[in-house]
Structures are given as structure tokens and as C-alpha cells.
Design brief:
Layout lengths: L5 H19 L12 E8 L2 E8 L10 E7 L13 H9 L3 E5 L4 H4 L3 H17 L1 H4 L1 E11 L1 H11 L18 E5 L16 H11 L19 E6 L7 H13 L4 E6 L15 H16 L9 H9 L5
Parallel strand pairs: 3-4, 3-5, 5-6, 6-7, 7-8
Antiparallel strand pairs: 1-2, 2-4
Length: 317
Amino acid sequence: MKSAPFHINLFFIGLLLKAANTVCAKPSYPPVISDAREVTYKNASSLNLKLWILEPDGHKKGDKKPVIVFFFGGGWRGGTPAQFEMQCKYLASRGMVAITADYRVSSRHQTLATACVEDGKSAIRWIRENAGRLGIDTRRVAAGGGSAGGHVAAATGTIKGFEARNENIEISSKPNALVLFNPAVALDDIGNEFVLPEEKKSSLPERVGTNPRKLSPYHHLDKTLPPTIIFHGTKDEAVPFETVRLFQRQADELGRHCWVVPFAGKPHGFFNWGRFENEPFRKSMKETDRFLSALGWIKGKPTIDQFITHKENPSDQ
């Protein structure tokens, strides 16, 4: 049998390498994010916790741009800020300052979820406190995240307390909007409508570091909830879809704006760059764009199609 021509073999090898890089590669820790400015926002557990900041073209210190900070997922155990690199790069291309944050997790810092929430609040407070050097508007600060990071973001927008010592609590740690990806919003039962499995219920106090209800965003919803958008797969086995529907219903009853965008048949983590040929990434970021446009934070039509084409085929540009 004759072998395929050399140029055809190279073509298929290139396709395989592209697929491996797009789908199989896992984000690194610590992250290496091109074009990002790296700063320390907090020292905790004898370590410097950092932010990776991406800015719009031509951004200046005197600007007052909207800003979003993302918190990675990983069950409060692990994960990396690199998870939200592409979301940050897209939103920076749309005129926002976009930040992905590190925070303490059990595998690296022997901490519990209480520390994760504390660090999330510290990051938001640091961003507001440094608005002048960041060129951002303190009234347009969004928090986002996925899974446990979605919980951290949701907690900053709903739960009082869990503030770090020696910080100026007169500077608010509460965001003005929430962008959540399969977030853990219910750490306790919701009446008879949602009941945690016994094995999860028994393990949560040790993982969380307090009574789980104290750290459960659903159970702290009130009329101060910021405008919120939630992306969630209907086949999520880690964080049941019904929990975000109940969160939305309660927000509606309180007169707050909460949108849930379902992804039919999709599992946990569906939104990450490289999954499902980037279609969930495309849709979730297009809807994020529309959500932020409706708030008046960014202008113009979404450019996510061009962004993805450029990132998937940089050599064609």
C-alpha cells in the first residue's frame, strides 16, 4: 500500500495538533497569560495572591472603564486563574478592564471555602481602592466565575461578613453585577424543592469551614442582589440545574433582575474554552456581551465570532 503524500500527512498532523491544543490542553498554574499585567492584591497564608489584568487598546489611568473580575472553579480545592483567560481577552476587546484572580484553595493553602469568599471580597475591594491606577469606574464592577468560583462571585454579591481583617471595610466588596457559570448557589436544602444528598450534606461543613447555610448564596438573597446572569447546563451532575432556577425564582420574587441561560444537555464546565468546538463559549460570551450592553457598560454589537475565528486560526489573520 502506498503511503499518503507527505503534504497530506502534514495537513492531518496539523489538525490533530490543533485539536489537542484546543480541547485537551489544561490551563496551567500559576497561569501564564500573554498581554496581562500581574499585580498582588493581598498577602494571605504567607503568600502573595495575584490578579492578571487585561486592558482595552489605548487604555489610560484616567479612564473610567467598567471592570469584571473572574474567579476560577475547582471545588474550593484547586483550579487556576488561567481558566478565564479567553473570557477576559474577549471582554477587554470590547472595552472593559478584565481581570482573572487567584485565591486560596485547600490543595495549595490548606484553607476552606470561607477563605475563598474572603479573598473574593478582598479582590473586589482592592479593585475599587485602586480605581485610579486601574482606570476603572467603581460603580461598574462585575464579579464572575465558574462552579466554586461562581459560588465565590455569587457570595460577594449576596452574603455579608467574611471580610478580611485590616482592610478598609468602608470600601464596598459587593459587585454591581454578577456573571455566573454553573455556580454553586445552594449549599443547603431549599425546603422540599431541593434536598442535598446525604453524603454531600455530611461532608460540606468540613469543606466549607462553617455552617454551609451561612455561605449559601440562595439563603442570603435580598433586594440588594446585583443584576445577574447565570449560564448552566441542564445535565450538570455536580451542580443541579434546578438550584439556579430556584435562585432565579427567588430573585424574581424580590424584584431583582436574574437571567438564567440554559444549555440543553450540557454537563458541568461546558463553557470552558475549547469544549464542544467552542459553541458554548461563543453563546455564553455573546449573552454576556448583551447583558453588559443592557446595563450600559459596553456598546455596539457582540464581536465574539471574529474573536473566536482569530483565536482559533491566528495564522490566517
